[in-house]
Amino acid sequence: MLKIYTVLFYLLTPFILLRLYWRGIKAPEYRKRWLERLAIYQKQYPTNVIWIHAVSVGEAEAIFPLVKQLQLISPSNNILITTTTPTGSARVQAVLNNTVAHVYLPYDLPVVVKQFLSVFKPKIAIIMEKEIWPNIYAQCADNHIPLMIINARLSANSAKGYKKIAALVKPALSKVCWVLTQTKEDRRRFIDIGAREEKVSVSGNIKFDLAIDNNIVQQAKEIKKECFINRFVWIIASTHKGEESIFLELYLQLKKQIPELLLLIVPRHPERFNAVKSLVEEANFNVCMRSTGQLCTDAIDVYIADTIGELKLLYGVADICFVAGSMVPVGGHNVLEPAVMEVPVLFGSYMMNFKEIARNVIDLGAAIQCETNAQILDTVLRLYNDSDFSAEMVEKATLFIKQNKGATEKTVGIIMQTLN
Q1: With 80 as the cut, is the pLDDT of residue 417 above it?
Q2: Is 90 exceeded by the pLDDT of residue 337?
Q3: What residues does CATH 3.40.50.2000 cover in the chain?
Q4: Rounded Cα–Cα distance for residues 1 and 317 (Å)
Q5: Amino acid 157: pLDDT
Q6: Is the pLDDT of residue 368 over 80?
Q7: Which of 25, 99, 76, 86 has its CA nearest to residue 55?
Q8: For residue 238, which of 275, 272, 288, 281 has the smallest C-alpha distance?
Q9: What's the whole-model pTM score?
Q10: Between 20 and 30 A from 398 (CA), which of 103, 113, 197, 307?
Q11: What angle do CA 321, 324, 329 make, to 5 degrees?
Q12: CB atoms within 10 A of CB 5
């Protein structure tokens, strides 16, 4: 099965590269550094690295506390971080700068993976969440590189999909020395798709170990005072196609009862910034783009955050947050970040990617799930009119996060144990 997969990957590689070029038309970063995806490098990198793979922005944000702990415990070890997306790459470079090496993940082709491993000579490979690349796993095993999956999560649908290609997935998972899962449910699913039971352990979710710099909190307060004074800021975070129009319609209805309302939209993908701006203008709303530095006057209806890496900061200026990717079947995004910034959190019905967290925060009253537009309207108005209810939600969310911290420390302990 691995041979068939590899042959198909080789045959599809020209089309994958063409798709990369096509995506680069709207988002030029996709066309840059494409040789890295073939393990062709134009400068020298450190060897004998601790290699950590984080697909995109969400995974990158989650690993930062872990990376900093590893650097503190073992400063002599070089760290390599790979990502798949340019936005993930931008976050790694912005937050960790030159303290780590960074390249894109190589394509899962034997010759490419072999070249990648020969350049960096990893001491250990650490994969975030659920990336299963058969040739990478096989070659790590062949080169005696211990490989771990950390913060592992697996939805029922993903597990069903992996079972259909069990002949490919099971041998790959047999080469993993540890799978550290977020929940007991994730542990069961990883075992069901072929992971060795004795090598799968529940460590918790490292996304609870968010660290918010006091400078960010202070900066958010200053921005609120300077740019959004006397505005009730409703942030819609990480929107996907089809969601902005929903909130523009809701804004129109809410504005009648909340005259100072400002809709702050943060599109998930940079290539959609201009499309979202056009959508807002076509709906006849006054719009302001963050990148222009234009003053957000009282006449502005919609403020679009067309910058990268500022989401935590913008949570800090908001009065209410709606975490998007949950009004369309994307699966939702991280609800813990706004909670850490002490903003009341709402989200829609599609929360498959954060199923357990969503269920827990709903049960605790630490966040509210809104399945219809009418529910969103009612909830926003209640939070606007009832400051005690809003404060109570924030307090419950803060307690929930505090009670679930510690996964990063456990994970770092097992990484160091494996290295030693």
Answers
A1: yes
A2: yes
A3: 214-403
A4: 52
A5: 87
A6: yes
A7: 86
A8: 272
A9: 0.88
A10: 307
A11: 155
A12: 16
List CB contacts of 164: < 8 A, sequence separation 6 or more: none
When pLDDT is cut at 50, 70 and 90, the band that residue 27 belongs to is confident
Neighbour-count burial for 98-109, b at 16+ CB within 10 Å, e otherwise: eebbbbbbbbbb
**Helix (H) or strand (E) segment spanning residue 247:** helix 244-254
Helix (H, G, I), strand (E, B) or coil at 143: coil
Residue 248 clears pLDDT 90, i.e. is over it: yes
In this predicted structure, the answer to whether residue 165 has a pLDDT above a threshold of 80 is yes
**pLDDT value at residue 280:** 97
What local confidence, expressed as pLDDT, does residue 293 receive? 85
* Mean pLDDT along residues 1-27: 90
* DSSP character at residue 179: E
Ranges of CATH 3.40.50.11720 domains, the chain: 2-208+406-419
Distance CA 282, CA 77 (A): 53
Torsion angle in degrees (nearest 10) through CA of 340, 341, 347, 353: -40
Active site residue 59: yes
pLDDT at 213: 80
How far, in Å, CA of 200 to CA of 191, rounded? 7
Contact 375, 382 (CB under 8 A): no
Amino acid at 411: T
Q: 214-403 adopts what CATH topology?
A: Rossmann fold (3.40.50)
Taking only the tens place, the pLDDT of each residue in 115-156 is 999 999 999 999 999 899 999 999 999 999 999 999 999 988
pLDDT digit string, tens, across residues 204-217: 999 999 878 888 88
Listed residue (338, 154, 148) closest to 238, CA to CA: 338
d(Cα 194, Cα 170) in Å, to the nearest integer?
5
Backbone dihedral angles phi then psi of residue 249, each to the nearest 5 degrees: -65, -40
Q: How far apart are CA 327 and CA 241, in angstroms?
A: 10
CATH top-level class for 2-208+406-419? alpha beta
Give the CA distances from residue 391 to residues 212, 320, 335, 339, in Å, rounded to whole numbers and listed in that order. Answer: 19, 11, 17, 11
The count of other CB atoms within 10 Å of the CB of residue 289 is 18
Catalytic residue among 36, 59, 243, 310: 59
User: What separation, in Å, do the N-terminal and C-terminal C-alpha atoms of the chain show?
Assistant: 34
